[in-house]
Design goal:
Protein name: Putative polyether-specific epoxidase
Keywords: Flavoprotein, Oxidoreductase
Order of helices and strands: HEEEEHEEEEEHHEEEE
CATH class of the largest domain: Alpha Beta
Radius of gyration: 22 Å
Organism: Dactylosporangium roseum
Shape: globular
Bound molecules: flavin-adenine dinucleotide
Structural class: alpha+beta
GO molecular function: oxidoreductase activity
Number of helices: 4
Length: 233
Amino acid sequence: GWQYRFPARQFAIMCGRPLLDRVVRDRVLTSDRIRLRQRTEAVALVGDSVRVSGVEVYSLENGTRETLEADLVVDATGRRSGLRRWLSALGLPPVEVDIVDAGIAYSTREFVAPPGATGGFPAVNVAADHRTGQPGRFGVLFPQEGGRWMATLSCTRGGKLPTRSESFLPCAQSLPDPLLARLIGSVEPLTDVFVSHIGANRRLYPGRLNRWPDGLIIVGDSLAAFNPIYGHG
Ligand SMILES: Cc1cc2nc3c(=O)[nH]c(=O)nc-3n(C[C@H](O)[C@H](O)[C@H](O)COP(=O)(O)OP(=O)(O)OC[C@H]3O[C@@H](n4cnc5c(N)ncnc54)[C@H](O)[C@@H]3O)c2cc1C
């Protein structure tokens, strides 16, 4: 069905991930207090269960390991963070975690936006209908930089997703509302179909540990990573 209309007070800035990463990276690197280590992985925390005093890093360039000492370590390694494992290695009890895995997958294709439907064009969201008792199926269309539209079809576990270009439009046509299919039906595709399996919703509960080491904080998806459709990034 349709969401009822209400006065819009929120807005979203739509762009592709490479552009977002590029803008953030360029801005960060204008600070001479920040040094970027390319092709370097954090592999362990240094310290003990009372205080984290640094990070052990591994260079993918030359295969060496090195300890970086720090007053404050920020885990921002995203939804595949090794934090629980790293904390256990310091002798802390396991951090509690909630995992809800609906088996979400995405199938995405980009198109040339028609003239007049680029900047300012609204995001389109055909939501899943939970009343069907079937695996959830939904689709979105987001305008992007460079006069492009990005269309994504998605399903929960057991649903069928298009993996080939020729099945993308028929799948969009089978959504609960034809709006998305109508929009992409007459525009020129720019890419093939990309399928991604997102992984589970996952939330850590560091606050439930009865002790937490000084010198360590967690931000972003390392702490809580949900279905990307929420746009929580
Ligand atoms: C398919 C998809 C679509 C999404 N769409 C949207 C959207 O439209 N809008 C929105 O707001 N959010 C969206 N999100 C969510 C958003 O991307 C995340 O919430 C956000 O990127 C989290 O930021 P972060 O900095 O915590 O982690 P990330 O952006 O995941 O960054 C973590 C970084 O750490 C690096 N890293 C990982 N492990 C290590 C290690 N051991 N050592 C060194 N570096 C490491 C990774 O390479 C990565 O660069 C989407 C997510 C996905 C997966």
